[in-house]
Design a protein that fits this description.
alpha+beta, Nuclear Transport Factor 2, Chain: A, seven-stranded mixed beta sheet, 7 strands, about 40% helix, about 45% strand, globular
């Protein structure tokens, strides 16, 4: 009888573990969809100069390392778009890959853009890595690193 109880307990444990993995996989799929939508929303905000949207989707402790090695904060980016000193005529994102690690997401991708920031040309083809963290039930970007692709 004890062997049967142990066997049933083991089977239930394995079944529960398998179900948990399916739930996690489904949650990961949903998170990937949410992050991809955020990337598109962020791209639209950048090309339209929507400082308010960028402010909402960006964590307060955000850091961005530009292709020139400059370190930018959330306040600097929002201010740049608000004042118009950051302006993009066009920006297309592609090759997006999203990896989910619990409440953290890492996105790698490519952007081809034409624009200026503080009078400097930021046009070109870039590869980037962006990190999101789920804070208060919402995904916020916390870090970005961009590198110019040399042709």
């Amino acid at each position: 009888m004890r062997k049967i109880i142990v066997g049933v307990a083991a089977a239930l444990t394995l079944a529960a573990f398998g179900f948990q993995k399916q739930v996690s996989h489904a949650e990961d799929k949903l998170a990937v969809q949410q992050i991809l939508r955020l990337e598109e929303d962020r791209n639209r905000a950048i090309t339209s100069g929507d400082a308010k949207a960028l402010e909402q989707m960006t964590a307060d402790d955000y850091t961005f390392i530009t292709l020139r090695g400059e370190l930018r904060t959330k306040a600097e980016i929002v201010s740049g778009f608000r004042s118009g000193s950051f302006h993009y005529e066009s920006r297309r994102i592609s090759d997006l890959t999203v990896r989910i690690y619990g409440d953290t997401a890492v996105v790698t991708g490519r952007s081809n853009q034409k624009g200026q920031e503080n009078g400097k040309d930021y046009s070109g083809d870039y590869r980037f890595t962006r990190v999101y963290v789920k804070q208060g039930g919402a995904w916020k970007t916390v870090a970005l690193q961009a590198t110019l692709v040399q042709h």
